[in-house]
């Protein structure tokens, strides 16, 4: 029926990669803000911290839904294998997101249990972040597959490696969140955010080193990709950029006049880490098993959604940007309804 | 795959969607109600409208937030517990879910931020537009999710290759035979649900004299809206019944607990359906009325459950009783509206104690009817996920053990009970506070940076007081 459809699988892989990256960056910073919230010095700081994300978190989380349904639409085989394999990390992530999502409302309306909801907001953010880190680790690690279905056990995804990536993401989102708070706050709270950013940056760099050593040791394909000639030369910008971005981040944290640079450098670090994982695995979408062509949806499905996406995505980005613009500037304590 | 994993996965899905659907059942209608009131406020500048809108926006925010987080759970269910269903149907259904995200969720999320926090940051027209956009988003969402659900009930526009569905015609997939009826019936159900909540809350404040003008405006608006929508809903329900008769005869037979195909079929008011003996016990029947209602002809032929082998039949008692509950609620709604007009004609609408009390109780009617109707249509679809083509038993993830799903179900049970208990308590508290009260205390100064410090110190003191 559609005889001349070009190969859309790589384009869809790019679109999804973009969607998931946007999710990681956007919900990453507001989950990170939720993590730092747990260490905030006093209730005035907590109020400002939460106000800095309350108008935007819902939109940020929507990218997760788009990521999940987009994956289901473009690469259904990946969805059907990955999601059951990640049964418990996803369950814990959802619980985390539920508690944290309702805490936005409940903490201001539930005076006698405010403490509980403040803790739920922190713990929910931490649980969701850790679970997402486990998901990333499990994805790199690979899955036991039989035909078109996952055939391992529901607890296979919890290994030392995935627990490490879970912990690493806590620092990663913490760094994004601290960058956001530097941008959105001033005075003492900003100083405090800079200190948090420094701690998180150390954690992130340690995680980078651990993952870079551990992954090639764990997997021969990844080792060959990175450490064979001439790949090593082509891929050398990746570690080089990482070092430069880490230095830029450090400078932004130290320089008291810098506002947005810390957030931007943290975003840069995330993009480079993301690219690193992509380089290691491309073009496999179920690592070490299926390529993106084997996992792709029917061409008609890909075209049908692409038409709408091409039209809607720019509009979404436009009005989402507008809603960020409405709440631009340093955060206020008095927004509310 | 174990049978316990299948059974528990079904319980889990029923649990998470049952709680979730209560929120859209309210927020879809409430978004439109808020948009309507905001338009009235923009046009008339009558303070009561603004007070009503601000009152409901607070309630909407809690319900919508809970709806978002319980909604995120839903697409993941398809993967975690129903991966074979996901693999088989995704080429057809996944774009519909994705379009829901693209057209609805982003729209709602972006403009909700402005609706909740931006009244003083954007011009009045942009604020009203944001309210409209949120409402439009909820309707887009209903459109796509009901298109997907309807396709599972009445699949069209596909070809089946090696047990997987491939799209052949997208218009047939989206506008499948049961979709227009289901969309109309469901959206009107959501509007009616909201209408009865507004009516009940208005009644509560009228009875306690805690909201003068606002209470009367709310109460009267809701009554007018329901006068149109509830009779309309009866007609739409009848149309959906005809549609089910045509495309899902076995489901219809289960709804009516009707075992043998026959013309001049009776209407069974009450019975205990018994699948073992393939008959009803303690049946109370009215002759020929079944054929008349279902086919609009007293001699019409009504299908029977025995038309298909036992393994293709749904559990009869669940849709049978759920359907009767839904219809019973619908009839009581009609009675309440009729009583309201009778009292209005006598000029005592706002002061009639027993009627206001009844309206307060009726504020939960819409939710009960939605759950009952949803149960009817979803359990009636069994034993299939895609009607007649893909069995529920063949849809579940093969890797799961009963222990896995038991553990996750326990988790969902605990989390939802906590969140809904507390959420419901908050909603009640907001409802009791009433419209008008909030405006007096709301901060006056506007402008981006203006008065931040003063308000900061005030809110901090408040924070300390509540934390103390």
Structure in a nutshell:
The complex is a heterodimer of chains A (337) and B (468). Chain A is built from 14 helices and four strands.
List the helices and strands and how they pair.
The complex is a heterodimer of chains A (337) and B (468).
Chain A: H1 9-37, H2 43-51, H3 57-74, H4 76-85, H5 87-109, H6 114-141, E1 145-146, E2 149-150, H7 160-184, H8 187-218, H9 220-227, H10 231-234, H11 237-254, H12 261-281, E3 284-286, E4 290-291, H13 292-295, H14 299-326
Antiparallel strand pairs in A: 1-2, 3-4
Chain B: H1 3-44, H2 47-80, H3 83-117, H4 124-153, E1 158-161, E2 164-167, H5 170-174, H6 179-207, H7 213-247, H8 249-255, E3 262-263, E4 267-274, E5 279-286, H9 289-295, E6 301-302, H10 317-345, H11 353-362, H12 365-381, E7 384-386, E8 390-391, H13 402-433, H14 437-441, H15 452-467
Antiparallel strand pairs in B: 1-2, 3-6, 4-5, 7-8
Describe the protein's architecture and organization.
The complex is a heterodimer of chains A (337) and B (468). By secondary structure, chain A is an all-alpha fold. Chain A has one domain (9-326): Formate dehydrogenase/DMSO reductase fold, CATH 1.20.1630.10. Chain A has 14 helices and four strands. In chain A, the strands form two sheets. A two-stranded antiparallel ribbon of chain A has the order 1-2. In chain A, strands 3-4 form a two-stranded antiparallel ribbon. In chain A, helix 1 runs antiparallel to helix 6 and helix 1 crosses helix 7 (160-184). The longest helix of chain A is centred in the middle third of the chain and has 32 residues, at 187-218. Chain B has one domain (3-254, 310-467). A two-stranded antiparallel sheet of chain B has the order 1-2. In chain B, helix 10 (317-345) runs antiparallel to helix 11 (353-362). Mean pLDDT of chain B is 87; it is low at 438-468. Chains A and B meet through helix 2, helix 3, helix 4, helix 5 and strand 2 of A and helix 2, helix 3, helix 13 and helix 15 of B.
């Amino acid at each position: 029926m559609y005889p001349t459809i070009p190969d859309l699988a790589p384009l869809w892989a790019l679109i999804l990669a973009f969607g998931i990256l946007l999710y990681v960056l956007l919900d990453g910073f507001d989950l990170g803000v939720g993590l730092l919230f747990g260490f905030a010095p006093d209730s005035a700081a907590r109020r400002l911290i939460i106000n800095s994300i309350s108008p935007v978190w819902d939109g940020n989380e929507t990218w997760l839904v788009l990521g999940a349904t987009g994956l289901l639409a473009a690469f259904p085989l990946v969805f059907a294998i990955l999601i059951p394999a990640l049964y418990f990390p996803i369950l814990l992530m959802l619980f985390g997101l539920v508690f944290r999502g309702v805490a936005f409302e409940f903490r201001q309306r539930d005076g006698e249990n405010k403490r509980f909801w403040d803790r739920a907001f922190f713990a929910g953010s931490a649980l969701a972040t850790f679970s997402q880190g486990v998901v990333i680790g499990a994805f790199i690690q690979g899955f036991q597959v039989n035909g078109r279905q996952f055939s391992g056990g529901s607890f296979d995804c919890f290994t030392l490696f995935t627990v490490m990536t879970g912990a690493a993401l806590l620092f990663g989102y913490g760094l994004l969140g601290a960058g956001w708070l530097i941008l959105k706050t001033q005075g003492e709270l900003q100083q405090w955010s800079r200190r948090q950013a420094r701690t998180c940056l150390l954690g992130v760099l340690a995680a980078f080193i651990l993952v870079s050593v551990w992954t090639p040791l764990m997997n021969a394909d990844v080792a060959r990709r990175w450490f064979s000639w001439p790949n090593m030369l082509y891929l050398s910008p990746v570690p080089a950029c990482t070092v430069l971005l880490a230095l830029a981040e450090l400078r932004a944290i130290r320089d008291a006049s810098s506002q947005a640079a810390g957030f931007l450098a943290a975003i840069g670090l995330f993009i480079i880490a993301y690219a690193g994982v992509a380089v290691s695995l491309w073009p496999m979408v179920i690592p070490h098993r299926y390529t993106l062509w084997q996992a792709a949806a029917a061409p008609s499905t890909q075209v049908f959604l692409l038409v709408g996406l091409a039209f809607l995505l720019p509009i979404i980005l436009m009005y989402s940007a507008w809603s960020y613009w409405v709440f631009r500037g340093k955060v206020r304590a008095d927004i509310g309804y | 795959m174990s049978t316990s994993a299948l059974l528990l996965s079904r319980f889990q899905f029923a649990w998470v969607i049952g709680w979730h659907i209560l929120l859209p059942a309210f927020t879809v209608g409430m978004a439109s109600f808020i948009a309507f009131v905001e338009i009235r406020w923009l046009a008339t500048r009558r303070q009561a409208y603004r007070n009503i809108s601000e009152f409901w926006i607070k309630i909407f925010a809690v319900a919508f937030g809970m709806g978002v987080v319980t909604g995120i759970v839903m697409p993941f269910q398809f993967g975690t517990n129903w991966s074979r269903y996901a693999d088989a149907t995704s080429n057809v259904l996944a774009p519909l879910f994705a379009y829901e995200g693209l057209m609805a969720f982003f729209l709602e999320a972006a403009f909700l931020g402005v609706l909740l926090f931006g009244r003083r940051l954007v011009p009045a027209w942009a604020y009203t537009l944001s309210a409209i956009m949120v409402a439009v988003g909820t309707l887009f969402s209903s459109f796509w999710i009901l298109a997907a659900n309807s396709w599972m009930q009445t699949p069209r526009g596909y070809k089946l290759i090696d047990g997987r569905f491939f799209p052949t015609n997208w218009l047939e997939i989206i506008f499948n035979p049961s979709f227009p009826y289901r969309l109309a019936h469901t959206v009107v159900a959501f509007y009616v649900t909201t209408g009865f909540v507004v009516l009940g809350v208005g009644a509560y404040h009228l009875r306690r004299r805690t909201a003068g003008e606002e209470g009367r405006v709310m109460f009267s608006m809701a009554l007018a809206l329901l006068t149109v929508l509830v009779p309309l809903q009866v007609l739409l329900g009848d149309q959906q019944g005809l549609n089910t008769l045509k495309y899902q005869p076995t489901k219809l037979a289960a709804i009516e607990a009707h075992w043998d195909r026959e013309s001049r079929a009776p209407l069974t008011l009450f019975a205990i359906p018994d699948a073992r003996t393939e008959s009803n016990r303690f049946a109370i029947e009215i002759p020929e009325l079944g054929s008349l209602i279902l086919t609009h002809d007293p001699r019409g032929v009504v299908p029977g459950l025995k038309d298909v082998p036992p393994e293709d039949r749904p559990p009869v008692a669940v849709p049978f009783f759920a359907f009767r509950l839904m219809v019973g609620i619908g009839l009581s709604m009609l009675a309440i509206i009729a009583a309201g007009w009778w009292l209005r004609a006598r000029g005592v609408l706002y002061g009639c104690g027993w009627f206001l009390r009844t309206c307060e109780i009726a504020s939960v009617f819409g939710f009960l009817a939605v759950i009952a109707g949803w149960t009817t249509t979803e359990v009636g679809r069994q034993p299939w996920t895609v009607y007649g083509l893909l069995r529920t038993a063949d849809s579940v993830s093969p890797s799961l053990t009963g222990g896995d799903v038991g553990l996750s179900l326990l988790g969902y049970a605990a989390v939802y009970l906590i969140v809904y208990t507390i959420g419901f308590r908050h909603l009640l508290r907001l409802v009791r506070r009433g419209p008008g009260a909030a405006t007096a205390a709301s901060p006056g100064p506007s402008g981006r940076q203006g008065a931040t410090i003063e308000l900061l110190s005030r809110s901090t003191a408040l924070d300390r007081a509540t934390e103390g």
